[in-house]
Every structure is written in structure tokens, then in C-alpha cells.
Amino acid sequence: MTRHWSLPSFSLRCLHVWRRNLLVWKKLALASMIGNLADPMLYMLGFGYGLGRMMPDAFGGTTYIAFLAAGTVCSSTMMSASFEAMYSGFSRMHVQKTWEAIMNAPLDLDDVVLGEAVWAASKSLLSGLAVLLVAAALGLCASSLALWVIPVILITGLAFGSLGLIVTALSPSYDFFVYYMTLAITPMMLMSGVFFPADQLPPAVHLATALLPLSHAVDLVRPLMSGQVPAQWALHLCVLAAYAIIGFYLALALTRRRLLK
Amino acid sequence: MDNLDPDFTIRENLQVYGRYFDLSAAEVNARIPALLEFAGLANRGDDNLRALSGGMKRRLTLARALINDPDLIFLDEPTTGLDPQARHLIWQRLRQLLAQGKTIFLTTHFMDEAERLCSRLAVMDHGRMIASGTPRELVERHIEPQVVEVFGDGAGAWAKEQGTRLAERCETAGETVFCYVHDAAALIDDLAARSELRYVHRPANLEDVFLRLTGRDLRD
Fold it and tell me: Do B92 and B18 lie in a common domain?
């Protein structure tokens, strides 16, 4: 029992896990891009322009599409990291037994799980970055401060990749992920200020959003894209980092419990 | 069930696995032709994994395990689920590895596999080692050298009347009577006169030893 909770020990070989996933991704890149990139973009443009036209003054000087673009950068990052860590991770861990094959080589489970978490974050970086680039192309980034969004995407991706890996470690089958998507991810997306300002929520609910990692990502990305230094940026970063680090540790311990007998 | 990478070609499977051992791309690529040859997959390096049969995948898995040129190789039931041709090819490859001086640690349920490949063998039952030695030693030590299997209508009745008298030991499993003897001549004479019974006379093998040591009950 206690050995499952011992501190992680990594080697540089975790990079080989990352590179393996990259090679698979390269082969399937087109389909993966359409799902991960086109989908959020379509929602952003459709709702941003369509709804935005109906409420030109509701967002205090900024347009709805600019407001929504910042939210979409974050939600797209969250979705991409979560899907990769859950569905693809589960395929590699449970269905294809890829992790088992890797652990027959001189890599530890710790290396595999770290490689997977960083891989999920890398994929989500691509998704978040794509939305950011489109937003920039549409003139929705006010200044070069928007470049700071990139590290925020990365740490958000790590946080959701780690959380996804926790679910994967607990999951008996693919069906299990529906619970997490419906009970955690969807409410989080609605409560974290992606589509509308979180202060529109009932006060008690609004207070609770402070616990959600996505709302901290949104609170960083939205000001950065509109050319302001986010208020309490260090706090938001610390919360995201805590989700990433504690989430990873939990994911690792639970995966050890599942796979190491 | 294998854990090869279904999204990769045969060559990529070997290349990616070589990286896990921190081998350079040049080192791995230099080893791949010999490994493909070993697996009987020469010239098929660029084939998609989905195009391979079960036997080919098993050989590729074995070749992949050799990517770092190990001295000691652990194999768990390497031929389970393969057809006889595929199984014989694997056995031939394993003997080739033994001839190169490699050590193979193999677990199997196939006694003929153990008999063909092992120089030293341990019988495990409920997680404990209950006998060990060379295959021949085990047969000599634990069982009579000759076996006559008798089957057909009335085999059970025959065993009660004649079998127990003519053989040193008789065991009934299903509808077959196994008679263990040092000299089968008297037994065969008796059986030859009975047209309703059929029989097979053969030397004792490891399977007999295994059943002797672990019993004939199902292990579920």
C-alpha cells in the first residue's frame, strides 16, 4: 500500500514515451486536428458572431467574440488534455497494453505516467494555441501580452492531463469517462466564465468556482488577451500548478495501485 | 494477445522499442535486418501491423524482445494459441538462440515444448516448485517408463479385472485408462486378444510426470 504512495522517481526515458505518442499522432494528425481544432473554432465563430451581434454592449467595451475567444482557448485546452489522458491513455494502458510493453524495457511506470501527462499537455498546447492564433488573426488579441497565454495553456493542459489520468486509473471501461465528462467537465465549462461572466451565477455558485482549475485559467487568459496584466496572477498560477502537481501524484499512485501487483 | 503497437509498421515497432533502451537510431537500424530475418519477416519491414497473422506477430514480439541483444530472455507461454507450423518455427528460433549461448527462462503448459527446449525444468504447482531436473531425469525419477492408454467400451471394466493385475499402476481419466509399466509385453498380449478395446503404447513423457505430480483434477 505505502509503496504506491512513495514519491515519484523519473528518468529522462519518459521522453521516449512522449516520442512514441508523437509518432502515432503524426500518422493520424489530420483526423485528430479536425476533431481537436476545428470543433472549438466553429463554436467560437458561430456563437461569437451570431450571439455577439445581439448584445453589442453587454461585455463592457469588449466584443462577445473576444470574450468567448479567451474562454475557448481555455476550454479547448481542457478538452484536448482530458480526452487524450482518458480515452487515448486508456487505450494505451488497458486495451493495447502499450504501457506494459514499455515497462518490459528499462522504464518505470513513473516514467510512463509522466510521459503521458506531458504528452496530454503537449496535445492540448496545440489545441489552445490554434484557437489563440485564430483569435490573433481576427484581431482579438490586444497586445503582445497575449504571448503569456502560451505558458498558461501548458500548465492548464498539465492540470487537466493529470486529472484525466486519475480518472483513467480508476476506470473499468471507456463508459466510465462519461461520468467525468458529464459530472465534472461540462459543469466546469459552464461555471468558469467560458461563455458568460461567472459573476452572473448565483453568489454561492460563483464562490465555488474559485475551486475550479478552469476558472483560474480563464481569469489569466482573458485579461492577457485583452492587453492587461491579470489581477492576482500568481494566485491563479499557483492553483493551476497545484492541480497539476497534486493531480499528477494522485494519478501516479492510483495507476501504481492498478498496475503494479 | 500481444502488446505490439498496432499503429506502427513492423520496422517502427522495433525502432520505437529500441529507443526505450536508450539505443541510438543508428544502432537500432543496424540490428533491424537481422531481427526481421530472425522473425521470418525479411522484406516486410514496412508492412502495417494489421496485415500480420498471429504467428507473425508472435515472432515479431520475440524479435522485439531481442532488440537490446539480451543474454537472458524471459518468455511466458511463447507458443500458446499458435498453429503447429507457427509453433515449430518459434521452437526452431528459440533453439537458435540457445545455440548462440543465450539463456531462456520459459514458462509453459505444453509439456512437449518443455521437453524439446529445456535443459533444466521445474514443475510448479500452486505457486510451489515440486520437482526439478532435466526432462529425462524427471521421467526416470517419477514415473514408469512405458505407458499403455486403453480406451473403448468396457475399458473401465477391463482395468478392474486385468489392468490392475498386469500394470504396476492404473489411472482412469474420463473414458481412458492409463497403465504405467516397466515391461508392457504381458499387457499388450492381453489387449491384442480383445477386439472391443483400442490401445496406444508409448514411452512415458513429461505430461505423465506432470499429471502424476499434480493430479488429474481440474485447476480452476
Answer: yes
Residues B76, B159, single domain; the answer is no
Q: How is chain A split into domains, by residue range?
A: 32-259
pLDDT tens track of chain A, all 261 residues?
678 999 999 999 999 999 999 999 999 888 878 877 788 889 899 999 998 888 877 777 789 999 999 999 999 999 999 999 999 999 999 999 999 999 999 999 999 999 999 999 999 999 999 999 999 999 999 999 999 999 999 999 999 999 999 999 999 999 999 999 999 999 999 999 999 999 999 999 999 999 999 999 999 999 999 999 999 999 999 999 999 999 999 999 999 999 997
Residues B81 and B148 reside in one and the same domain: no
- Chain A 12-31, residues with CB within 8 Å of chain B CB atoms: 13, 16, 19-20, 23-24, 27-28
Q: Could you give the number of structural domains in chain B?
A: 2
- What is the model's pTM? 0.89
Domain shared by B81 and B166, yes or no:
no
How big is the CA angle at A211 (ends A71 and A123), to the nearest 5 degrees?
Answer: 45
ipTM of the complex as predicted: 0.90
B59, part of any domain: yes
Last residue of one domain, picked from the residues B107, B124, B157: B107
Please state the length of chain A. Answer: 261
Distance from CA of A211 to the nearest CA of B (A): 39
CB pairs under 8 A between A and B: 40
Collapsed DSSP state (helix, strand, coil) of residue B76: strand
Residues of B contacting chain A (CB within 8 angstroms): 1, 3-8, 12, 16-17, 19-22, 65, 68
- Separation of alpha carbons A205 and A214, rounded Å: 15
Q: How far apart are CA A47 and CA A73, in angstroms?
A: 14
> What domain range includes position B72?
10-107
CATH number of B86's domain? 3.40.50.300
Helices (H) and strands (E) in chain B, counts: 10, 8
Position B97, amino acid: L
